Structure formats: C-alpha cells, structure tokens
Amino acid sequence: MQSYQEIGNKIIWLEEVDSTNNYAKKLIENGEEEGTMVLARKQTRGRGREDRNWISPEGGLYLSLILKPPFPVKELSMMTLLTAVVVLEAIEKLTGFRCQVKWPNDLLLEGRKVCGVLTESKVVGEAIEYVVVGVGVNVNNNMEELSTNLQYPATSLQEKLGYEVEISMVLREIILSFNKNYKLTLREGWSVILKKWKENLYPVGEIHRQNYLSMGNQEGELA
Ligand code: BTN
Fold it and tell me: In the chain, pLDDT over 70 holds for what percent of residues?
C-alpha cells in the first residue's frame, strides 16, 4: 500500500478566513505536506462550485484537506466522490441519518442540501501535484442565512435533529471516515467507493443517469 500521511494529525484552526481552500493552497505553495487540515469558524468569501458563493457564518463546519494522492490524473474526479462518501458515512454514524448524493457531490437529507464539496487541484504533466478538498457542512447554521446560499433548499443537522450538534463531533467523524476510506482506496482501488457512491445516489432522472454512465466510462476499469 502507498504510504499516506493521515489527516487530523495537523489541524490549523482559524477564527476567520476568506476561504479555507485559498488558505490551504497558500500553505502548499510554502511547502505544506499531505494531511494538513485547515479549519475555520467562519469564512468571509467561502467558495462553492461553478463560481458560486458559499455563505459561511458561524455555526457551520468549513474545512479543507491537503492531499497529494498517488493516483493517475484521470482518477482525479474520484477524490470528490470519495469525499461525498466520507461525509455521508460520518453524518450517518453521528446522527443515524443517511444522506443521498446528488450529482456529483452534494449531500442531501430528504432532498435538502446539507453539505457541499469543492475539490481543487494542480496537475503537472501526468501527475497530480496536490488536491485541496474543501468541505462545508450545515451543522447549526441559521436557516435564514442558508436560504441565500444555494440553488436547492437547504437544511442543517440541527434542523433535522431538533437540537444543536457539537461541530467537533462532526469533525471527528469526518476525520475517522476519511482515513478509513482513503486507506481502503489506496489498498484496494476505487471499486468500494464507487459502489457506496452509486448505492446512495439521489434519483434525479435522465441527467443523473447520463452523468452516472459517463462516470462509469471514465473510470471504466474501476467501475
Ligand atoms: C458547493 O456545494 O458548491 C461546494 C461548497 C464547498 C464549500 C466549502 S467550505 C470549506 C471550503 N472553503 C471554501 O471556500 N469552499 C469549501
């Protein structure tokens, strides 16, 4: 198995930052190693996919992981799927609720968005130099603030459970789940992650089916 620096051993805690992904990328430029996690109580310019904002007041979980995966470039998109599975399992372990994955990596609880993943990377030639995996989870967020965040209706763990959730507990489960699933992937390839991801897909008809099939083709030998 490839060696891997477990995440969670080095966590940089920030009161406030523009974006944990931006901060992580600056760290990498200064030589930061794999495994470091950047965590912020709030973000002033949190970023989502497709240039959207990720409104990030206190109450949510905002983190970025620095990874230097040994995979070929064509498997880069699998890191996003892996992260969706990681957070899905973490939330289920903590709350008993099983999320669904809406293509490619939104996590929905009963059709409402509870988590988003933003994966950014640098590729040099045929090699992945780094991947920054950014995760935002709606934990105890104010629901009015969340409604401006997204193109889908949002929910939070607090709204679903009816009580406030310790953000550190969510963080702990994500770290455990990440290390477990990432090590499994390094040992056995992507098939287990792909299976878990497909088993928990949110059914959104033809578009989803097409994307799903193209993922099968892209990762043909793995699926
Ligand atoms: C999306 O659903 O569009 C992805 C949202 C990703 C948000 C997280 S919060 C931590 C990290 N830092 C950012 O600026 N974005 C990601």
Answer: 87
| 10-218: CATH topology | BirA Bifunctional Protein; domain 2 (3.30.930)
Please check whether residue 24 is in contact with residue 62, taking contact to mean a CB–CB distance below 8 angstroms. Answer: no
Ligand 1 close to Cβ of residue 60 (< 6 A): no
Query: What separation in angstroms does the CA of 144 have from each of 17, 139, 148, 159?
Result: 22, 14, 8, 12
Tokens of 50: 């497709």
pLDDT at 205 over 90: no
Q: Cα–Cα distance between 223 and 217 in angstroms, integer? A: 8
Spans of all domains in the chain: 10-218
What spacing in Å lies between the alpha carbon of 221 and ligand 1's midpoint?
A: 30
What does the pLDDT read at residue 203? 83
d(CA 156, CA 164): 10
pLDDT confidence band for 146 (50 / 70 / 90): confident
Q: Residue 216 pLDDT more than 70?
A: no
> Which is the closest atom of ligand 1 to the Cα of 113?
2
